[in-house]
Amino acid sequence: MSTSGRISIAVLGLGGQGGGVLADWIVQLGANNGYVTQGTSVPGVAQRTGATVYYVEMMPRSEAATPLLALMPVPGDVDIVVASELMEAGRAILRGFVSDRTVLIGSTHRVYAIDEKSAMGDGRASGERIIAAAKQRAGRYIGFDMEDAAERAGSVISSVMFGALCASGALPFGRDAFEAAIVSGGKAVEANLRGFAAGHAAALCDSATPLDAQQMPTASTEKGRALQARIQANLPQAAQYFAIEGARRLMDYQDPAYADLYLARLESLSGNADLITEAARYLALWMSYEDTIRVADLKVRETRFERVRAEVKAKDDQIVQLTEYMHPRLEEICETLPAGMGRTILASPRLSGWLGGMFTKGRHVETTSLRWFLMLSVLASGRCWRRSTLRYQTEQARIEAWLDIVRSADPDVALELVKCQRLIKGYGDTFERGLHNFNRIIERYRSGGLSASGIARLREAALADEKGDALQAALAG
Amino acid sequence: MAERSFKAEVERLKIGDGEAFEGEGILAVTKALLQSGVAYVGGYQGSPISHLMDVFADASELMAGLGVHFESSASEATAAAMLAASVNYPLRGAVAWKSVVGTNVASDALSNVASGGVTGGALIIVGEDYGEGSSIMQERTHAFAMKSQMWLIDPRPSLPLLVDMVEHGFALSEASNTPVMLELRVRACHMTGSFVARDNRRPPLTVAEAAQTPHRDTSRIVLPPANFAHEVEKIEKRWPAGIKYVQDHGLNEHFGTAQDDIGIIVQGGLFNSLNRALELIGLSDAYGNAVLPVYVLNVTYPLIPDEVQAFCAGKSAVLIVEEGQPEFIEHELNTLVRRADLNTRIAGKDMLPRSGEYTADVIKQGVAKFLRAHAPDRAPAEMPVQPPALPPTAVPQRPAGFCTGCPERPIFSAMKLVQKDIGELHVSADIGCHLFSILPPFHIGNTTMGYGLGTAGASAFKPEGKRAVAIMGDGGFWHNGLTSGIGNAVFNQDDNLTIIVDNGYSAATGGQDILSSKATTPQRKTNNPIEKAVRGVGITWAKTRTRTYDVAGMRDAIHDALTSPDKGPKVLVAQSECQLNRQRRIKPQIAKALKSGQRVVRERFGVDPDTCTGDHSCIRLSGCPSLTIRANPDPLRQDPVAHVENSCVGCGVCGEVSHAAVLCPSFYKAHVISNPNRADRIRQRLRGWVISALQRRSARKIAARAF
User: Fold this and answer.
1) What fold characterizes domain A7-204?
2) Where are the beta strands (DSSP E) in B7-80?
3) Best to test chain B binding among A11, A12, A114 (most B CBs inside 10 Å)
4) pTM to 2 decimals?
5) Looking at B360-440, which runs of residues are DSSP E strands?
6) Which residues in chain A have their CB less than 8 angstroms from residue B707's CB?
7) Which CATH superfamily hosts domain B15-248?
8) Looking at the complex, does the CB of residue A370 fall below 8 Å from at least one CB of chain B?
9) Which of A193, A217, A424, B65 stands the most exposed, by the fewest C-beta atoms within 10 Å?
């Protein structure tokens, strides 16, 4: 608080998060409790999902004179900052609104910005960095996942923030006064009071949430226990988590024999624990490549139906029907056929032209209908003849070629070559682009003179843009 | 129907003498207009005064009851021309728009009304969109006031003063036969506060009554020789009259001490920030009791020579705090000081930044610099700058973007797909939500030349081979694009494609209705199709697509238009309702249906995390706020997976994009049926029985081969 008794409050949020509602409550709260209160906001495009600031100032009412209140926060002169999202708390710190006299109340959940979301790999900004800065810079920091608290209370984040503001004790008003402001707002009063109570309670208790520890899958079958024993006997400690997860996945993907092949391949690599660990990860991912059989298998599972019901928040008396957006092209169909047949069709322009016509349009697959469910189930049972498919043969050849160059490389170079598998992901055009980039890097390596850091640089460049401009430049440079 | 309803607040506009009015700046302005006996009101919406237009619209019944005419003007030019009613008749009129852009559009009519002069008070309320939150070029309305000689009021942020200034504005206009501009800064529009109200007044003469008894004075019309006489009249009669009124009524204010060696002159709108700056360096308190003289210009044009002379006399230096550039006031102060033969040094842009918003922090530094130069004993000690706790790169930028389920997004997804096929296009963008196309993830658009000017902006391109594309919104189309863009393209035999985004509202400004809106309202005539209008001015290649969410269909239509052998301008009307407004419209209907037990189907999308590989191609083609990412639940994968939040409105773009772009099979659409009917339940029971049996069987198989 400034020496004049004035309290300044900045609310940072995203358009559409209800920051305006929160600011209105704060204005009501001050005005009803003997304070001259003024709120301001910036209308306009910021309200279309952009970052925006609401600002409130209040000062004890006196008969003698009317205070002059400011319309926007001044760096270093803000008593309370309420941020509705983690990066917005970061923005408040960046703009200097958070000082040692500031109580910073911020939700720790993330609403990812477009640049973070659209990155080809992992473009997320570091949340730890923001929390560390908040703890260091603010007089007091109250942070917890307010979005989650709102959801659990069946309310909205603005009321949770208002509850946390009350609990912080940063404003000289009692809980009754806060709740009265919600009631006088007159909209969704019950839900808002629930959210308020949730926010109030959460702000009072220690909000540090422990990170999930890596949980090792435990073997449930005879074969599983045998594989586990083999992993523990033959692979370095550090690699065991990924290797067990890899073996688990490949048993689910194909069968125990396939997991045996996976371990045999891993065991054939000599090198340090880092290399084996990363190889355990990427080899499992490559060997569980997503073919039509795998996609169909995952789509019809009981566990998936349950997960979707939870995700769309369906209540017990509601019926959920599912439609998939699938776009199998002739290539994918042929790859699921026995290798010879698939190759013949793809090699014949006449055949592939004629058949290709049947697979140019995307399909709306209604998985919850009997017809499509049965069709997908039949496709999923293709697991039995997967080893004879064209795709299987192609991928195994690619994997062997990759492992060959990994085996022949120095350990640090081998590690980077292993990590290049990250580029191969997705379906259709995305898959082809990734594979193409992977091949370009490998070719460049084969032509000689590429160091470990050089490979890492090319890999990053391949993830920089969709058109491959950065990779092109990096390869040329 | 506009984005925000002021129906409840408007009720409070009825309060009378002595009652306290509490509310936002825009409501205070509206109340002040009614208290001033305004006879007619018009304007065009746009931030920061969009909500003022919404308040007017919501108050139109109240206004009609008082005999006040209100209309939503077709453009700012229309609104400015409406002031013609005050030329011959003692009618008070007020118009409002976003400035500086709206003033640009209105300037032809403004020059005319300012030249001939007015009889009744003419008030132009401009929302000055400058500084943080602004979406337009950073220019000053001040220049327009000067060039056309209209007085400019820039009130100190205080609701009682704002209300007074509206009333004075009319009286000043009448006393000097000059239109008056009232400048509202961004935050002042939504600043809350209170003032003591007066009764609303019926206009002494209504527009209807004026029309009954026409009166003509051709000397008010801008045509030789009257135009030359107007110029003389402006200088010899209106200017002195304006200055006299401002001076007699003390519209400018003084704060702080009376005598000092230095002083500060400030634009009224910046006064609160200046006072905070002074308070922070110990030269004022929370009530404006500064320890040096401050002269507050609530009227920033014209300056009052006597007041300036009195203030500057005996001072060695005066700081002018004037936001924006060029520094017109500083220039004029220098002239006035010189003419008065004073030795006072005028400091301004040498102490404060030449560009950018004058926040309290910026002013604080400027005042400190001024004190160090002219009153070093009072200058604050220089504070060491605290190193930032975070580098700017630690916090991602958050540009505005298309809303969840926006129907404009698939148009640009489709354009991206077309570009994949035929290469990059030259795209002339327009003003409106669709301008977000220039931002990630679309990066589409080369230029924007102004509201409704998308097609005109492409008119220099006479393609030989690849056609240029122009974007235009329905708001811009009816504002001027029909003539400036489409008519021009027909007349000049263009061969480009114009995509008109027809979402049923003037969406970017807050969802106001326009000519082609689908809603029917008693006060307006809507449902005038855009395609009919363009055909009316000679377009022969025109298509309307009624579902923009059909990405493949949009892609093919755009492709078609760009490769069609037909010569001549092509118009593709891309039609789907603004989702923000749609949700507002249907949400209450759905809630009602659910409550009464009716069958309701909710659609939303989702992503299967186990088939999503974390490439985010879908996001690069969509950018929907509800399509986001989350940590990959797969322990082997590092890249986050795509994820659809529950805010999804089921528009379908995700699925259509993944189809059209041959992306991944991870998207699913869920139909969630509430209150299912008998047929639903029977079908579900049958399906459930078979599907569960099969799922149980395969679950056993999976368990058998499990780890």
Assistant:
1) Pyruvate-ferredoxin Oxidoreductase; domain 3 (3.40.920)
2) 20-24, 40-43, 69-70
3) A114
4) 0.91
5) 427-429
6) 217, 219-221, 223-224, 227-228, 244, 247-248, 251-252, 259
7) Thiamin diphosphate (ThDP)-binding fold, Pyr/PP domains (3.40.50.970)
8) yes
9) B65
